[in-house]
């Protein structure tokens, strides 16, 4: 993925981060997903007084896209507040592995836009996926 695309995705993730609803943790996170046909979907974390109902930024972005008919993604960028770079939780790693390819780029950024580049396999090595269940030939 070229540097321009990385920076554009980080900028979109940062925009989404501004909308984070985080009265409890005060830890805003934003995510941006590039679809294979060049669209960008983004999401923020959305907390709840019943803490366990919180939705992370990554899953907000993926679920928005899938619900609008986009499920083929090329890359994801995630950004969070502070100097430490974003690191998706286990639930989000599993959802990312469901919808992105093993070798899809994953950009983990901090609020200054400094980032580490990894991929889905790096986030969740040996992930349990549709392939584990259905093999290579499935219509889904
Ligand atoms: O990658 C991450 C890690 C955490 N969170 C959210 C969940 C919760 O709102 C807050 C603190 O855990 O950060 C995300 O959205 N994405
Ligand atoms: Zn998460």
Automatic annotation (TrEMBL):
NCBIfam families with a match to the protein in the record: cyt_deam_tetra (TIGR01354), PRK05578.1 (NF004064)
Superkingdom of origin: Bacteria
Species in which this protein is naturally found: Proteinivorax tanatarense
GO CC, one annotated term: cytosol
InterPro entries from the UniProt entry: APOBEC/CMP_deaminase_Zn-bd, CMP_dCMP_dom, Cyt/Deoxycyt_deaminase, Cyt_deam_tetra, Cytidine_deaminase-like
Protein family per UniProt: Belongs to the cytidine and deoxycytidylate deaminase family.
GO molecular function, one term: cytidine deaminase activity
Enzyme Commission number, as recorded: 3.5.4.5
Cofactor requirement: Zn(2+)
Domain CMP/dCMP-type deaminase, chain residue ranges per copy: 4-131
Keyword Zinc recorded: yes
Binding site for substrate: 45-51
Record field: catalytic activity: 2'-deoxycytidine + H2O + H(+) = 2'-deoxyuridine + NH4(+); cytidine + H2O + H(+) = uridine + NH4(+)
Keyword terms, alphabetized: Hydrolase, Metal-binding, Zinc
Record function comment: This enzyme scavenges exogenous and endogenous cytidine and 2'-deoxycytidine for UMP synthesis.
Active-site residues annotated for this sequence: 58
Name assigned to this protein: Cytidine deaminase
Residue ranges of coiled coil: none
A Pfam family it matches: dCMP_cyt_deam_1
Binding site for Zn(2+): 56, 89, 92
GO BP annotations listed: nucleobase-containing small molecule metabolic process; pyrimidine-containing compound metabolic process
């Amino acid at each position: 993925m070229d540097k321009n695309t990385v920076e554009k995705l980080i900028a979109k993730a940062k925009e989404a981060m501004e909308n984070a609803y985080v009265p409890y943790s005060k830890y805003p996170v934003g995510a941006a997903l590039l679809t294979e046909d060049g669209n960008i979907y983004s999401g923020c974390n959305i907390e709840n007084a019943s803490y366990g109902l919180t939705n992370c930024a990554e899953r907000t972005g993926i679920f928005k896209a899938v619900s609008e008919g986009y499920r083929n993604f090329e890359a994801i960028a995630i950004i969070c507040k502070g100097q430490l770079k974003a690191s998706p939780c286990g639930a989000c790693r599993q959802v990312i592995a469901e919808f992105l390819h093993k070798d899809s780029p994953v950009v983990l950024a901090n609020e200054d836009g400094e980032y580490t580049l990894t991929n889905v396999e790096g986030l969740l090595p040996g992930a349990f996926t549709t392939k584990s269940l259905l093999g290579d030939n499935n219509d889904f």
